[in-house]
Automatic annotation (TrEMBL):
It is found in: Endoplasmic reticulum membrane. This is Cytochrome P450. Its cofactor is heme. GO terms for molecular function: heme binding; iron ion binding; monooxygenase activity; oxidoreductase activity, acting on paired donors, with incorporation or reduction of molecular oxygen.
Length: 115
């Protein structure tokens, strides 16, 4: 996925959607994007299932680390907790937030390794 963004960066004519599709890059791009969305969606659903099946939700949120401090909730846990209290916050919006953080983390790590 990152390859497409870098490829378009140095080829401005590929930033035009029509040309991008005409040259056949859009199909592969869409396939990569679908894989990323499926990964995010499955991660969200697994976490929801875990939280739903956990009989003692407060224990999950009040776990302590080795020093006796409360563990901080993961970003996904915070999003799911917010969505539970605010039904207008949809799973699609959660997925978009998760995609943003997953891509940002991947891109930062990839850039550091390449440097």
């Amino acid at each position: 996925f990152t390859w497409f963004l870098q490829y378009q960066e140095f080829r401005p004519w590929l930033r035009n959607d029509f040309i991008f599709k005409l040259l056949g890059y859009a199909k592969e791009y869409d396939a990569c994007l679908k894989i990323l969305h499926n990964l995010s969606t499955s991660t969200i659903r697994e976490k929801k299932k875990y939280l739903k099946n956990n009989t003692n939700k407060t224990a999950v949120h009040q776990e302590e680390d080795a020093l006796g401090k409360k563990k901080r909730l993961a970003f996904l846990d915070l999003l799911l907790e917010y969505a539970e209290d605010n039904p207008e916050f949809t799973e699609e919006e959660i997925r978009k937030e998760v995609d943003t953080f997953m891509f940002a983390g991947h891109d930062t790590t990839a850039s550091a390794v390449n440097w």
